Amino acid sequence: ATTEDPRAANRDKFELELEFVQSLANPYYLHSLAQQNILDHLHSLTIWKKDYAMFIHYPHALHHLDLLQHAQFRSEMKKDEWREYLNQKQYDHWRTWRDYPGISTSVAPTDPQETGVQLQ
């Protein structure tokens, strides 16, 4: 066995766990894990909610991680109907989500007249 740099090993472990936690945002993946009875062994991942949330790109992963703490949810995720239900709820959230007031997501105008910029 080769001796690996502890920092590199730590980074590799972090990246692997990050990838796994983010995959929990996918209802189809959750369904697959549930059918394999893997969801019952994810209690140690709750640390991601508090300490590492800033690294998560898919917020539904953290929501699903919260739901996974409930035995009923883990059991229901084995069913195709629940996979579809969760998938639809996630889609509905994305479809109806709106930006907060005061935050503009519109593309900045390129016409100087629209921006009030005076050309010289």
Automatic annotation (TrEMBL):
It is found in: Nucleus. The keyword Transcription applies. Keywords: Activator, Nucleus, Transcription, Transcription regulation. GO terms for cellular component: mediator complex. Pfam families: Med31. Coiled coil: none annotated. One of its GO terms (biological process) is regulation of DNA-templated transcription. It comes from the Eukaryota. GO terms for molecular function: transcription coregulator activity. InterPro entries: Med31_sf, Mediator_Med31. Gene3D superfamilies: Mediator of RNA polymerase II, submodule Med31 (Soh1) (1.10.10.1340). Component of the Mediator complex. Belongs to the Mediator complex subunit 31 family. Component of the Mediator complex, a coactivator involved in the regulated transcription of nearly all RNA polymerase II-dependent genes. Mediator functions as a bridge to convey information from gene-specific regulatory proteins to the basal RNA polymerase II transcription machinery. Mediator is recruited to promoters by direct interactions with regulatory proteins and serves as a scaffold for the assembly of a functional preinitiation complex with RNA polymerase II and the general transcription factors. This is Mediator of RNA polymerase II transcription subunit 31. It comes from Suillus subaureus.
